[in-house]
């Protein structure tokens, strides 16, 4: 065996080119696998760190834990670590503009709490003693109270007391308004040393009545340091944030149920969305939770990110994609590396025959091939692993650069030893499967077959028949080229397959990227604004004042402000076409009612819209948009097609009776209809059923049509197929001018929205947010700004990011394929050097020789492209077809640029490889080459 190993090593040194090419293939395959597992590991690590910052570094939060019970958590073998917080109480905040959040909730913790809680410091530092405190940023942005670092504050801290229930209100309960007061208050003086982001949901409920202020607790620090026993403070209650061990995470429901003292099976069933609980089980579970020892909050996202087995749905898609990509890499690599070993066997076929003739067993010959694979792997795998890690590091930097500003977290580079071991194992498996077939083939070689060496070119003469046109056009060189490709099908099949794989992958991914960017463009094509604003408030807003705010900001080229109200119209005057469409939707019912959306525009926008629509005397009523596009099912083609149709028969001067519901005790008038109080839902089409119409007290107003148009105001182009009416403020208020009832629509019923065409959307958004935050006049209004330019940039950045990974994958797969092509063609040319020398010895000129080699390049390239290009186009068409079946409207256009580039690169690559090999052969001595029997 030592002799065989020595011989194997010597062969590798003698065939340096083939050895290097094979090692490069192994390095590329290993680098791809290492980069893949490192990127997956980095993404998982980044998500875990992001969730820790956002929601806290804990798995389960236990509330109302007595100090004397803390040791049960500290000594629980299922709990890895804990940190605690102590509720000090609530304090009234003078001048707070958020009526639903009038308190400061003072929480105390120690170093562990500050470090592992979701307290993201943005200014100053954390508290270090009980006289220091950290406040949240949304105290200023939401509560409009401006407290700075260094300020000293005084808080009267006490308990929330409900006078109705005569009990203490819990920390996360919503504000009860007049029903609650503060009791047992104690005056506390603090110095503000830091400002933090709003704590996550696990530490401050979204509906909580207080802003979380965090101070330091010497008591908790002493307990954690072991200098004080928790038994001394039996009545003090804490909130314990626990981190489970990895083993406990796999049985987290059972562990949690045991701690809080509820039925394990019921608790597990309640947390399993795929299992439905019976009514009896649900009642039992609710009762058990009411009597549970502690209230709990589960940090589900962190658990799902950290608990790899069983794989949670959050990472199931990521791991599935990674597994598919790994499989593609392994299959491609096995195919290419296997070809290197096959070429090696072909080169050494006589050597194996001689070894067999002097007594080498099949097992020894097999072992020789596997030893060669192991030697190549020892060099290729470490280099490939390091290359993959380096590539991952660079990719992480590229991802962070491309995603800056729109990704909520920065991707952190992270290497995982188990992941890298997995990559190495997969690389070893790749090499093993690549060499196994070749080893079996080498072991089967007999001495007689080795001497003849005819097995590779065994072919019937009929199959070597050459079309006459090849001889006429290209002469004897063309005939020899054609016959050689026919005779060595196996070798050239590998080359053709490699080119086909690379070509198809490039064409498909290029089309996917172009389609992705076109979809982004289409989705924003109908949007003729770049700033969208939704506003909510419990009171009615003055749209004219809002108009002044938006138009007063520099860079506003155009704007529109609207207040929208939903009304229903009983049996509107449908056109025949639209009536039939509605009848199909609602099972041929004739009493179909329709929902209308009346939008009250600011005066300037309404006057401009009326002028554009050609409506005169628009102040006398409403403008009806009477055309819309719907997805109509075509029975012949069995698919939905877009169809534009007129909606109603109304014309200028007609009246529409619009109904609405009043839910308070308003007195009824002539237009009121008493109904039940059951609520119901509506579908997306605008249909309103009888239950909704009769919900509460139904009232109506008559809306006069001032004009009918098929145009919508600026910024309403993508508003869908809702029936739209537009009015100005004066016209809308005149609907209740008869004095019978007044405008009984409750404050807050309106849907306020605004749209702006800004020169620079980013600058406009920054200025708007700054003005609304600093101006107390807008303290009661919540502004939700959508920057359409930024959204489009973010989506394009996302696809660019995907493109980086996709094209990176193409490049590496292409490199593996190219090494395979180089290996196959260059070795093939060397093995045929005696044939070329013989042809030159009988009179073939250098020109004829070069022409013959060029023709082989053309034949290989054309065959590969004839298969690869149509296959890529077919896959692209299927991809487009699937997208359209899923609701898209993409017109298929072949990626001509990608196809042309692919054709040019393939032809140049094959020609360059053949040219280099040919140049080397020209310098060989004809006689010495013919005499060389090792070829």
Helix fraction, binned, reads: 40-55%
- The global form is globular
Rg is: 38 Å
Helix/strand-derived category reads: alpha+beta
Number of domains: 4
- Biggest sheet layout: 11 strands, mixed
Summed over residues and divided by their number, the pLDDT gives a mean of: 79
Instruction: Count all strands and give the number.
Output: 23
* First and last CA, distance: 27 Å
Number of helices: 29
Identify low-pLDDT runs: 665-694
Assembly state? single chain
Strand content: 15-25%
Task: Provide a descriptive summary of the structure in words.
The chain has 935 residues and is of the alpha+beta class. It has four domains: 1-56 and 309-454, no CATH class; 57-250, no CATH class; 459-525 and 790-934, no CATH class; 538-667 and 686-780, no CATH class. It is built from 29 helices and 23 strands. Strands 1, 2, 3, 4, 5, 6, 7, 8, 9, 10 and 11 form an eleven-stranded mixed β-sheet that branches. β6 and β7 (167-168) form a beta hairpin. The longest helix has 44 residues, at 788-831.
